[in-house]
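Handout, page 2. Input:
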Amino acid sequence: MTNKRLNKTIAETGFCSRRAADKLIEDGNVLVNGEVAGLGVKVSETDKISINGKTITKQVKNIYLAFNKPVGITCTTDTEIKGNIVDFINYNERIFPIGRLDKPSEGLIFMTNDGDIVNKILRSKNNHDKEYIVTVNKKITSQFIKK
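Output:
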C-alpha cells in the first residue's frame, strides 16, 4: 500500500484541483481519520478523508478524452474565462487538458482527470516529441525563417 500526499489524493477524487485542496487544508477544512490535516500530510487508501464534514472517495475511474479543439476555445479550467475548454466540452466529471493549444489554434488535445499521466506526458525529461503543422500568412523565405 503506497502513501500519497493528501492534496493529490483529494484531486484524484475529482473534488477539486491540488491547489484548491491545499487551500482547503490550510483553512483547516480537511480531516484525516477525524484529525485536522496539515499541508504535506501523506495518506493511504484506508484513511478516511472528509472535507467540511463530507467524506470523500474516488468514485470516478480515470477519464481519457481525445478532443479536436476548434479555433476560439481557450485551454484552461478557469470557468471565469469565456470560451474555456471545460465549459465547451461540458463533461459530467472534472477534467482538464493535457498541455494546451493557443486560442487561435485548432487540433487534437487530450483531456483527463488523471494527474499522473499529465506529468508523464508533459515533463521534458521524458523526451516526448511534439509535432505541429503550421499555416502562415506570409511567404516563407530565408529572411522569414531567420526571424
